[in-house]
Design goal:
Strand order of the largest sheet: 1-2-3-6-7-10
Distance between the termini: 62 Å
Radius of gyration: 26 Å
Shape: flat
Number of strands: 10
Structural class: mainly beta
Number of helices: 1
Number of domains: 1
Largest sheet: 6 strands, antiparallel
Helix content: under 10%
Strand content: over 45%
Order of helices and strands: EEEEEEEEEEH
Length: 144
């Protein structure tokens, strides 16, 4: 969780701008192990209303989720994820300054579906039986 305050002070055409607000950002990530090597991941993010220069911006939030499963003695992993499931990542900004009343609503293309697959070719520790020699050791042999 993050808590901060933004203060914007300016003088535009001899009119003072004083735009400030305290804001809270909160992110949570939950990983749930399910039977049969399934893993469920849920992520949520919330930002309370905030200011950016002369803009006042309403709060926004998003929720994402993924399901993951491991195969072949945990060497192969397949994950299906969806970002911004409910398509809620929208901004509503407005300006009320110097007889300027502007209302801006934006919806971004943030709903993304991904299918990831990864394979771990070497499971476990590195092969310790290999004899590795450093460059300085080779130099010492040449000096003798």
């Amino acid at each position: 969780m993050l808590l901060y305050k933004k203060d914007y002070f300016s003088n535009i055409n001899n009119i003072n701008l004083n735009n400030n607000r305290s804001t809270v950002e909160f992110t949570t990530n939950n990983i749930i192990k399910l039977p049969h090597k399934y893993i469920l991941e849920c992520t949520g993010m919330y930002i309370s209303p905030f200011v950016q220069g002369i803009y006042k911006i309403d709060g926004l939030y998003t929720i994402s989720a993924a399901i993951k499963r491991k195969f072949l003695s945990d060497a192969l992993s397949i994950k299906l994820s969806v970002e911004d499931i409910f398509r809620t990542y929208k901004t509503h900004s407005y300006i009320q300054f110097q007889n300027q009343n502007t209302d801006i609503q934006q919806q971004f293309d943030t709903r993304i579906i991904r299918l990831n697959m990864s394979y771990n070719f070497k499971k476990g520790k590195f092969n310790a039986s290999r004899d590795r020699k450093g460059g300085s050791e080779e130099e010492q042999k040449r000096v003798k």
